[in-house]
Every structure is written in structure tokens, then in C-alpha cells.
Specification:
Structural class: mainly alpha
Strand content: under 5%
Oligomer: single chain
Number of helices: 12
Length: about 260
């Protein structure tokens, strides 16, 4: 290989990897933006943890493994996690009848439905899991009913006084922020409660349909839609029960389903 060729090749490589002033500035700016994002994320999530009830931080940590086991379709581990979280909430008086426990029971029912409908072929065993799902859903409704009775009639002053009383055993410099966050969580929970009931009744409809109690299934699907008109699952299942085609989602609905708002 000739020397002129080697020299020319070196010059080409230098040109390819040469970073001009504008590129250097861009890389610098992008690095600063990335670093700023990391710093903001660190302080943001640190701030959230500072506002979170310290008595349930370990429950949040348990929940962090939930999605992984769901994606792996490891229903045994999912049930174990849900049971652990529910047991931990039950130990804290403020959460003993909370909407969080209602959500966990609905999630447990979904696991049992998944097992009954997609993992079991024996009909007798299928009924056992459908019964387990129904039991969880009835517990969920019971938690929602109790929690709603406790909080729906409280004005802002009485709500704050109750939370301050319930959180009196927490020793933290951030207690006022912790109380304020819990108040926000409760108010948001009340706003979303009809949706949570709706999801629970949808699952009850599925249970009844597969136990061949069609009238009960029809009642639950209609109740679910009445509580939340955008409940696609309830509407679609209602159509199937009535001998119609299941609902189809539009492209945007598939990407941004209303159930996840």
C-alpha cells in the first residue's frame, strides 16, 4: 500500500472524526440537559418519598416488582406480592379499610380470572378459581363502601383533622407535607371511585358469565357502564352477552386507552 494512500486515508479519518465548534457546543448542551434531567428526577422522586407516608414505603417497594411478574405471566408470584401488600396495609389502622385494599382485591380477582380462563382446562377447577375471584371482588366492594362512608361526607377541615389524628404516630420533619399528600390521594381516590367500582363490576360480570349466570352478568355489566361510560371492557362484554359483535378500538384508543387515564 503506497505512502500517499496511507497519508490520504489518515487525513480522511481525521476529517470524519473531527468535531467542529458547533458540534462541541451541541454535545455540551445535550450533556447539560441530560445531567439536569437526572438531577431533577433525583430531587423529584426524593421529594415524593419525603411526602409519602413512611409506614407504607416498604409496600411501594414490594409493588415495584409487580409489573415484572405480570409481564412474565408468573401468577403465583403476583398473588404472593398482592397478599404481602394487603397484609402490610392491614397492619396500619388508617389503611385497614382503605381504597388501596379494594384495588388490591380487584387485582387479585384479575389473577384468578386469568388462571381460570387461560391456564385451566378442568371445569371443576375452573369454578374454584372463579369462586376465588368472586370472593375478592365482593371484598373489594366492601372496602370501597366502607372507605366511601368514612371520607365522602368530610369537609376539608374535618378531613385534615382526621388525617392528622391517624398520622400522629409518625415522627418526621415533613409531617405537614405527608398529611397534605395523603389528603390529595384521598380526594383523587374519591374522584376515581366510580371507575374503580366499574372495573370491579366488570370483573364480576365476567365471573358470572363463565359460571353461566347470564342474568347476573348482564346486571353487572350494565352497572359497570352506568358508573363509567367509557369502560370499554364492560361495553364489549355486554355486547357479546347480548349476541352482538365486541367493540373495536380505534387506533388512538389502542395507543391511549381511556381506562389508563
Amino acid at each position: 500500500m503506497s505512502e500517499p494512500f496511507l497519508i490520504g486515508r489518515k487525513i480522511m479519518l481525521k476529517e470524519i472524526f473531527r468535531i467542529n465548534t458547533k458540534t462541541k457546543k451541541l454535545i455540551f448542551i445535550m450533556s447539560i440537559v441530560a445531567l439536569t434531567g437526572l438531577i431533577i428526577a433525583y430531587f423529584y422522586y426524593g421529594s415524593i418519598n419525603n411526602m409519602e407516608d413512611p409506614r407504607i414505603l416498604h409496600i411501594k417497594k414490594i409493588h415495584s416488582s409487580y409489573n415484572k411478574f405480570v409481564l412474565d405471566n408468573n401468577m403465583t408470584e403476583v398473588l404472593t406480592l398482592l397478599d404481602s401488600m394487603d397484609d402490610e396495609y392491614a397492619k396500619i389502622p388508617h389503611y385497614s379499610d382503605s381504597f388501596e385494599r379494594g384495588v388490591l382485591q380487584t387485582d387479585r380477582s384479575s389473577v384468578y380470572l386469568n388462571i381460570a380462563l387461560y391456564q385451566i382446562t378442568d371445569e371443576d377447577e375452573k369454578i374454584i378459581y372463579l369462586d376465588k375471584a368472586e370472593e375478592c371482588l365482593n371484598k373489594s366492594i366492601s372496602y370501597y363502601d366502607s372507605w366511601k362512608r368514612t371520607y365522602s361526607e368530610l369537609d376539608s377541615i374535618h378531613l385534615k383533622n382526621k388525617i392528622i389524628s391517624d398520622f400522629s404516630d409518625i415522627k418526621s420533619d415533613n409531617i405537614s407535607k405527608i398529611v397534605d399528600k395523603r389528603i390529595r390521594d384521598i380526594n383523587e381516590g374519591l374522584l376515581d371511585l366510580d371507575k374503580r367500582y366499574s372495573v370491579t363490576y366488570t370483573n364480576l360480570g365476567i365471573v358470572m358469565r363463565h359460571k353461566f349466570h347470564q342474568d347476573s352478568a348482564l346486571m353487572y355489566y350494565r352497572k359497570a357502564v352506568e358508573l363509567w361510560d367509557d369502560n370499554h371492557a364492560a361495553k364489549s362484554n355486554l355486547n357479546v352477552l347480548l349476541g352482538k359483535e365486541p367493540l373495536k378500538r380505534g387506533v388512538l384508543e389502542k395507543i391511549f386507552p381511556k381506562e389508563k387515564e
